[in-house]
Fold this sequence. Notes:
Layout: H1 2-5, H2 17-42, H3 44-64
Amino acid sequence: xxxxxxxxxPARGPVAWNEVAHNQFFVVPRQLSDLFSTxxxxxxxxxxxxxxxxxxxxxxxxSDY
Length: 65
């Protein structure tokens, strides 16, 4: 769920399971550490805005195909 919400994997469309497994063990722990130490507690609005911007960017990239 974290990977989907933070756009480590596509919010829509197919998912590469090898990427999900890699993220789970190497990317997610690092991002969780960074996230909880700063953004989540002190800059939550900025965090949510960045997540929304990534979602909009993914939608645009998908519509370009």
